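Subject: mismatched residue count in predicted assembly?

I count 335 residues in my input, but I want to confirm that the predicted structure covers every chain. Input:
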Amino acid sequence: GPLRHVIRAIDAAQPFDYESQLHTQYVKSTSLKIAVIGFGNFGQFLAKAFARHHHTLLVHSRSDHSPAVRQQLNAPFFADLNDLCELHPDVVLLSTSILSTQSVLKSIPFQRLKRSTLFVDVLSVKEFPRNLFLKYLPQDFDILCTHPMFGPESAKSSWENLPFMYDKVRIGNDEERIKRVDKFLDVFAKEGCRMVEMSCFDHDKYAAGSQFVTHTMGRVLERFGVESSPINTKGYETLLDLVDNTKGDSFDLYYGLFMYNKNSLEQLQRLEMAFESIKQQLFGQMFRVYRKELFGSAEEEEEEERVRLLSATKETQNGAPVEQASVDSERLEGS
Ligand code: NAP
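Triage response: the counts match. Full output below for your records.
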């Protein structure tokens, strides 16, 4: 109501008053310390959202290539993972390339982390990191596998209604751990994502048929060279959008979708078969039309002859030389 507005205005003018201190304390108590490992295209994109939701960030990458973005987010850089782990992040988030995930994971000094740490990944394939986590992480660590089904290009302005897939692979049973994972998921829920809880197994099945095929078509069309024309149809515009959507992603990412999802090869083969079969349908139709034009009259005569012979056969079946007639019709069948 209007009273509330008046009070807020006073708050803004006196930043050190009790209420604003309370607010700061509240934010601190609900905020997570999130270590982002792999500060590339996608890692930065996610880090911006974590900062918007008042979480504290720590950053590691092979090199400090984006200091401006980090400074904007108030996120210190750690070249050495030992130093980062000693600061005891609540969440360690892997946003490395699919291909490098195993070696990065093995390089993390787990013993320097809190005994209860939540590991999260955002890889575009899911069974692969799930299995790596289960294999390498200490038993006490929690595991959340996620796939935000959007990127810096497709979700430039808002995350509203965009699917966020997650699988609580291993979350310890105490309240703190349950709250921690919910706080993390809340970032995506509050941004308006459509939260989809799903097993990593099912994710990979669906994603090979949808995401991998989408990336493949985007890359095929890019290589083919689609260009805007003065008479773009709506359909053509969607093709141009598709190319825009996929061309920003690294080849490492695309290759990862192929190599680390066991369903992708089959989908690639199905795509190739579908293309081949459409081609055959076109050519088949074309050949039928040509043949009619070239041999049309001859074929019509043949057909008349065939009908004549068949009726002759019927007549002879009632009488004498059946064998001869059936041989004739067999020969015709084969022609
Ligand atoms: P990417 O090419 O898949 O990954 C780039 C990141 O991986 C960079 O931080 C890079 O480190 C790191 N990296 C690459 N090779 C490495 C190596 N040998 N050792 C250590 N680190 C290495 O591009 P991305 O788009 O940023 O994707 C990151 C992850 O998010 C991927 O797993 C991807 O599947 C997933 N994802 C991406 C999107 C998207 O729209 N882009 C959407 C959903 C999920 P440096 O920073 O040191 O170069």
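The chain is about 60% helix and 10% strand. Marking this ticket as 'not a bug'.
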